[in-house]
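Recap from last week: sequence in, structure out.
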Amino acid sequence: MQRKFCISFHEQGDMGADLNYQWIAPSGCQLVHVSAVQSDSDAAGIIIGTSADPNGFATIFDCGLAGVPVELEAPSDFDGALALGQFPVISDGDIVTVDIDYDYNSGAGSGNAANVTIVLTFVEGGV
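Predicted structure tokens:
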């Protein structure tokens, strides 16, 4: 059985601008699950990829609202060009990026997201 590990990102309070988080993979791994949630109802947009292709793993999707997380958990949930409907494979040294569009709200941009938490779950070496 392959070992799992998680990387989490949290932005406390009302967001006032878009954010970009980056993480360097210390070894080969595979992204197998994403959970994203915020405390209010002004949906942030989440994009996941690499420094070479920022939406390569998952094109923009709505963050979970009002404390109810949204998940990417099936291979087909990973719709970016690098994933091709499979769990994304990450090589040693790749830079994984998570972008948050703070006022996305399905493209409506009606308000600022607040208290956003994103958890990425990986397996070592891939599946």
